[in-house]
Amino acid sequence: MLEKRKSQISPFTVINHTIMILLAIVTIFPFYNIVIVSLADYKVLAKSPLYLFPTSFDFEAYRLVFMNKNIFNSFFVSFFITAFGTFLSLLMTTAAAYAFSKKTLPGRSAMFLIVILTMYFSGGLIPTYLTIKAYGLIDNIFVLILPNLISAFNIILMANYFGSLPHGLEESAKIEGANDLYILARIVIPISMPIIATIGLFYSVGYWNEWWLAKLYLSDKSFWPLQMALREVLFNFNQMAGSEAAKEIAAKNAAVYTRSVQSAVVVITVVPILFVYPFIQRYFTKGILLGAEKG
Amino acid sequence: MKKAGLLKRTIQHKYFYLMLAPCLLYYFAFSYVPMYGIQVAFRDFSYVNPFGGAWAGLKYFNEALNDYMLMQTIGNTLVISVMKLITGFPAPVIIALLLNEIIGRKSKRIYQTVFTFPHFISWVVASGLILNILASSGILNQVLHFFGLPSQDILTSETAFRPMLYVTDIWKEAGWGSIIYLATIASIDPEIFEAARVDGANRFQQMRFITIPSLYSVMAILFILSIARIMDAGFDQIFNLYNPSVSGVAEIIDTYLYKRTFINGMSFSSSAALGLAKSVVNTILLLSANYIFKRLRGSGIYS
After folding, report:
1. What is the ipTM of this complex?
2. How far is CA B32 from CA A118, A149, B18, in A?
3. Full residue range of the structural domain in which residue A167 is found
4. Looking at the predicted structure, is the pLDDT value of residue A45 above 70?
5. Is A47 exposed, middle or buried (CB count within 10 Å of its CB: 0-12, 13-18, 19+)?
């Protein structure tokens, strides 16, 4: 359908690309700028605060960030909840979605309703808080994983995907005596990687970005994920408690250092997403489309 | 196999129940127990038995609805939501239409990758990026200073804070929002465009008469869903950009609910009542929007 237009370049094409490039610059600029500021030499930054091009290079801000015990620690908390949480979420979502994709399952629609209703009704802030408190999850690191373990929306996407798969392989495995758990693990999951990768991305980004559960339920800073450490650095810079970095900063130009360190923390919070995102991005349009088609 | 009795079919499916068990257990513990706990809004809160204090009738609803901050926060929430809807709703449609006209598959993919990315960062990170640009010593003011213009403190200005919310919301979410429209456009039968071209329709006419009408039903669904969230206004964004100088224009129901409970220490019961009242309004809005949609178009999104 598009080949025929390729031969001539119309003025509209030029204008359209111009708009797109401008939008792309607007989208990227905040990221670009924070990266170059975080890597700038402190003396250069102090002299010319309007720093638009990477004219100097220095890892000092990163050194200060990793010297800070709280930030260093929160980096591991974030890695842990992202890895373990995504694994648990995917396991439970995949298992439930596969069961829901079987139309012959007795009681399927009633159980499906139980799941769907949670998309429209919730206890709300206070009853949820009191429930979590009653479970003893306050100041427990698993409070960063458990409350958002499964998303009903992801179950629907995945169940639709499983429902659209050809049944031939499953049938023949069944005839050969394989049970349903084996079929799910050995036959269905290997051919469903696009949807698993897509939903794995959603979950892992959700865990990596988690700050609210920590804000609400964790007063113990040693369990804080990176996002909360970043919040602290952004809004409460002076309270980076017990840090050698804070003293070093106070001894030099505080305003400039604050900006460098804040930028460095933003960068280390974004970079892991940046690494995962392009690899999985190619899956997700396809995954969402296939999941949504039959929905 | 179809004719087998219910018991036999249930046994045949035993592994599927095993697969569902953890999921149902999760929803019971983390969704249905809190729903059961909504009754705290009608009871005196007791630390000993959180959901089992003495019945108090509508006492806490009275208390919550007489809160001196309530009207202001409802007003802020509605203004911010409605303005976000007006400014933010067309943005993904426009991006999708323009992206669709990009001919090379590769450049289209690159643009899409770039526009979608900000959706995947948290509002904590986004506020870090925004501070670097808009804070009193940020890039914007350095540029203004360079040209000898007076500096602007957008983040603490009562007039500029809300527009800043609308713009940064578009910056973060419009690209992601365009994916569903692009998918809808991709599902249009290419023969329709072919036929239009044979009849002499140019690109704008094809867009006007084929592409845009094909998006109406998705737009309607997304519009209804936004109406249903009109009491929300974007907690993460506002909570992470909030500062006391803008409390008059930026305090929304959700941020206030957090503040009155966990900072001002008002009773769990009255906050639960406020939260419940808000959810009821949301549900009424969703149902009415769906009803109106159904009357207009023959079928609602929840049929």
Report:
1. 0.89
2. 8, 14, 20
3. 61-293
4. yes
5. exposed
